[in-house]
Amino acid sequence: MEQDKRIFEFQARLCQVLASPKRLEILYTLKETELTAGDLAKAVDVTMPNLSQHLSLMKQHGLVESRKEGLNMYYRLSSEHILAVCDSVRRVLAEQLARQSVLLDHVTAIDKR
Length: 113
Description:
Blueprint: H1 2-17, H2 21-29, E1 35-36, H3 37-44, H4 48-60, E2 64-69, E3 72-77, H5 81-111
């Protein structure tokens, strides 16, 4: 039971890291390729200092990995499973939006009576 509590704590921290739209954008940008920090900053439209903060936190939580080649630092996803998790959350959100849309249509129809 104590181990479950620790896992829940780790899971909650990871969810906090994923709670940033910009960090999600970075993850999806790295979906199929690794990019230099400069290319990644351009792709997600952030400054290098801001990107560095995001990447540092994401590396700390094991979401991205880096390698240095010459003067460039390259970043890639540490696991494709993280995007599977994000995609699952997106499907849940799509379901919720669809239910809200149906409810809104129902309320609109009632108001027109």
